[in-house]
Amino acid sequence: MPTTSQSGEGAARSKRADALRNRQTLLDAAAAVFVTSGVDAPIRAIAARAGVGMGTIYRHFPTRAELVVAVYRHQVDTCAEAGPSLLADADSPLAALRQWVDLFVDFLVTKHGLANAMQSDSSGFDALHSYFLDRLVPVCAQLLDAAVDAGEIRPGTHAYELMRGIGNLCIGRDGDPRYDPRRLVELLLRGLERPRSS
């Protein structure tokens, strides 16, 4: 039979797990809203998507900058963790790379508002950029290597340059509804493909 202290520890663990789940739900909701409406989207839109009150968001993230930074880190982690899973589950390494790039584009759309949200905290921005590179470049490299090994793309493309190219294509989306970066990213990925022998 559990002692009072053991049941108290269990309740505390359960409470921490609930708090972590709630935080993850908030971050997922904020990321989705930021992708469609930008980092200046109303907090009430995020609260509605997460199914919580605005006070809950402010309790977790007292300022918009804290929320944006948390979403940024959350998306980096999600993108990094998705790479190996996609590689294991997709029909081919190239299909996994395409799916991962789609997640990466969603992330980049959010990232572009980050500098404005952080305003003068350039050291914080630099630390986040390093975190981004440390987590995502190896994942992209793994996907590229797998697609090269499978004979689906040409060798020689470096993960950093591919990610930088995709990032540059995503910048043009700001303020121009006629511009669709995903279409151009798809053209870029097609350019990596090894021609099929007829």
Detailed description of the structure:
This protein is mainly α and 198 residues long. Helices cover 77% and strands 0% of the residues. Helix 8 (159-171) packs antiparallel against helix 9. The longest helix has 34 residues, at 4-37.
Concise structural overview:
This protein is mainly alpha-helical and 198 residues long.
Tell me the number of strands. 0
Order of helices and strands: HHHHHHHHH
In one word, what is the shape? globular
For the termini, the CA-CA separation is 71 Å
Helix proportion: over 70%
Main beta sheet: strand number and arrangement? none
Q: What are the low-pLDDT stretches, counting only 5+ consecutive residues below 50? A: none
Q: How would you state the average pLDDT, rounded?
A: 85
Supply Rg. 20 Å
Helices, by number, come to 9
The helix/strand class is mainly alpha
DSSP strand content = under 5%
